[in-house]
Design goal:
heterodimer, A: mainly alpha, B: alpha/beta, 8 helices, 36% helix
C-alpha cells in the first residue's frame, strides 16, 4: 500500500506545482456546461424540461474532461521517460497500475465535483438528498472510467497522435458504462428521489479494473 | 563458473519486434564483481539486451538470470538488485533532486532522512543544487541526478546504457569515479557504449554485439580487442 500512496503523493505534488491537469479539466467541464446552456437557451426548450437534460450533459462534461485529465497526467510520467524509472522500481506492475488509477481518479473527482456544482446552477436543480445519489453515481462511474482510461492512455502513448488516440479508444469502450451512469443519474434526479440501480455500473467497474490490472504488465513492457 | 558466481547469465536470448530480429541468440555470462563493456553500432542490439536484463523488455526466447534471479520468474527480485541508467535519466523534471531521490527511495522501501539524501546528492556533486528544480539542469547535471537515483539502493548490478552520451568532462569524471568505486565495492558493472577509450577504461572485459549476436569477446586490455572494435564498429566488417 505504501508504494501506491507514494505514487499518488508524487502525482499530487507535481500537479500542485504545475497546476495544469485539474485546472484544465475543471475549465473544460464548465465550458461544456456553458455551451450546452447556450444551445438549450437558443432552442427555446421548455424550462420544465431542463432538469431532464442535466444527466446527459453532466456525463458529457465528466467524460470529456476526464479524457483531457488522463492525457495530462500521463504526460507527467512520459516527460524525460520517467515512467521507465517507475518500471524499474521493485513493485509489481499491478501496484503501479493501481497507483496511477487512484491518482487519475483523484484528479477526475475534483473535476467531477465542480461539474456537479455547475449542473446544479445551470439546470435549476435543488441541492437536496438526491445530490448524494448523483455524487455516488459519479464516483462509481469515475472509478470505471479511470480504470479503463489509465490503461488505454498507456496504450495510446505508444502510438503517434496519442492525444487523439485516447478518446478514439476510450469512448467506444466506456459507452455501456456512460449509458448506465446517465440512466442512474436521471433516476437519482427524479422528483420522487428513486434509488438508482448501481449494479451494472459496479459490474463494469469490477470488470474494467480486474482486466486492466491483469494486462497492464503486457502494455508497459516492450 | 557456477550460477551463484554469476551476476548475469544470458542463454540464447532472442527478441523480435514484428519481423525484425533485434537479438538473435545472445549468450553471455558476467562474473560477480567484474566490469564488462558491450560495444556495438546503432541497432546492434545493445540497448535491447540491457532492457531485457533490467526487466523493461520481455525476451522472445531464451533465459536471463540477474543476481541469481530469473528475469521472467522473479522480476521484482531482479529490480531490487539492479540499477539501470541510460542517456535518459528517468527522473521527474518538475521535482528537485532531493524530491526525486526521496520519491524513488520510498519506491525501494527505503526511508532516507534529509541528511542521508543530502549525502547521496553530495556524492555526485549536487549538494548545492539539491533544492533546485531538475527542469533547470544541464544535461551533465541531469545525469548526475540519474547516477544518484541508480545508486540509491546500493544495487549489486549496474546496467548502464550509453551513460556517457552528452556528458561534459566533469560529469564523465564523476561517472568514472562512481564506476571505479562500484567495482572496488564488489558490484558488477555492465555498460554499453560507442566510445572505445571510455568503454575500455571502465571495464576488464569487452564484448562486441553485431546484428543481435555477440561476435567478439576479449580482455579490455588486449590489442586484439581494439582491432576487433575497428573492424566491427568502425568498418562493419569481420577481421
Amino acid at each position: 500500500m505504501k508504494p501506491i500512496l507514494t505514487l499518488i503523493l508524487k502525482d499530487v505534488s507535481i500537479e500542485l506545482r504545475r497546476k495544469e491537469s485539474v485546472a484544465a479539466m475543471v475549465m473544460f467541464g464548465i465550458l461544456v456546461m456553458v455551451i450546452f446552456n447556450f444551445a438549450i437557451e437558443s432552442a427555446n426548450v421548455d424550462p420544465a424540461l431542463r432538469p431532464d437534460l442535466a444527466p446527459g450533459i453532466l456525463w458529457v462534461a465528466v467524460s470529456l474532461s476526464g479524457i483531457l485529465g488522463l492525457n495530462r497526467t500521463l504526460a507527467i510520467d512520459l516527460d524525460n521517460d520517467s515512467i521507465q524509472g517507475l518500471l524499474l522500481a521493485p513493485l509489481s506492475r499491478g501496484s503501479l497500475y493501481l497507483g496511477k488509477v487512484l491518482s487519475n481518479l483523484l484528479f477526475i473527482l475534483v473535476s467531477d465535483a465542480i461539474a456537479i456544482l455547475s449542473v446544479l446552477v445551470f439546470y435549476d436543480l435543488d441541492a437536496d438528498r438526491r445530490l448524494l445519489w448523483v455524487a455516488l453515481v459519479v464516483l462509481l462511474g469515475s472509478i470505471g472510467f479511470a480504470s479503463v482510461g489509465t490503461i488505454l492512455s498507456m496504450v495510446s502513448s505508444h502510438t503517434r497522435m496519442s492525444e487523439v488516440m485516447l478518446p478514439v479508444l476510450l469512448i467506444p469502450m466506456t459507452i455501456p458504462l456512460i449509458i448506465s451512469c446517465v440512466a442512474a443519474t436521471a433516476t437519482a434526479l427524479t422528483r420522487d428521489a428513486a434509488r438508482p440501480s448501481l449494479s451494472l455500473i459496479i459490474g463494469f467497474d469490477i470488470i474494467f479494473l480486474v482486466i486492466s490490472y491483469l494486462v497492464f504488465e503486457h502494455v508497459v513492457e516492450e | 563458473m557456477n550460477a551463484t558466481s554469476l551476476a548475469l547469465s544470458a542463454h540464447d536470448i532472442g527478441k523480435t519486434y514484428g519481423h525484425f530480429p533485434a537479438l538473435a541468440g545472445v549468450t553471455l555470462d558476467v562474473a560477480r564483481g567484474t566490469s564488462v563493456t558491450i560495444f556495438g553500432r546503432n541497432g546492434a542490439g545493445k540497448t535491447t539486451f540491457l532492457k531485457i536484463a533490467a526487466t523493461l523488455a520481455r525476451a522472445s526466447s531464451g533465459d536471463v538470470d540477474v543476481a541469481g534471479f530469473s528475469v521472467g520468474e522473479a522480476p521484482e527480485d531482479v529490480r531490487r538488485r539492479i540499477g539501470f541508467l541510460s542517456h535518459n535519466t528517468y527522473v521527474y523534471r518538475d521535482l528537485t533532486p532531493r524530491e526525486n531521490l526521496r520519491f524513488f527511495s520510498r519506491l525501494y522501501g527505503l526511508d532516507l532522512s534529509d541528511d542521508e539524501l543530502a549525502e547521496r546528492l553530495g556524492r555526485v556533486g549536487l549538494g548545492h543544487r539539491q533544492n533546485d528544480p531538475v527542469r533547470s539542469f544541464s544535461r551533465g547535471l541531469l545525469q548526475r541526478v540519474g547516477i544518484a537515483r541508480v545508486t540509491l539502493h546500493d544495487p549489486e548490478v549496474l546496467l548502464l546504457d550509453e551513460p556517457y552520451t552528452g556528458l561534459d568532462r566533469g560529469a564523465v569524471d564523476t561517472l568514472n569515479m562512481m564506476l571505479d568505486q562500484a567495482v572496488e565495492e564488489g558490484r558488477t558493472v555492465i555498460l554499453t557504449t560507442h566510445d572505445l577509450e571510455l568503454g575500455l577504461r571502465a571495464s576488464g572485459r569487452a564484448h562486441i554485439i553485431d546484428r543481435g549476436r555477440i561476435v567478439y569477446s576479449g580482455g579490455a586490455a588486449d590489442l586484439e580487442t581494439r582491432e576487433a572494435y575497428r573492424h566491427f564498429i568502425q568498418s562493419g566488417t569481420k577481421p
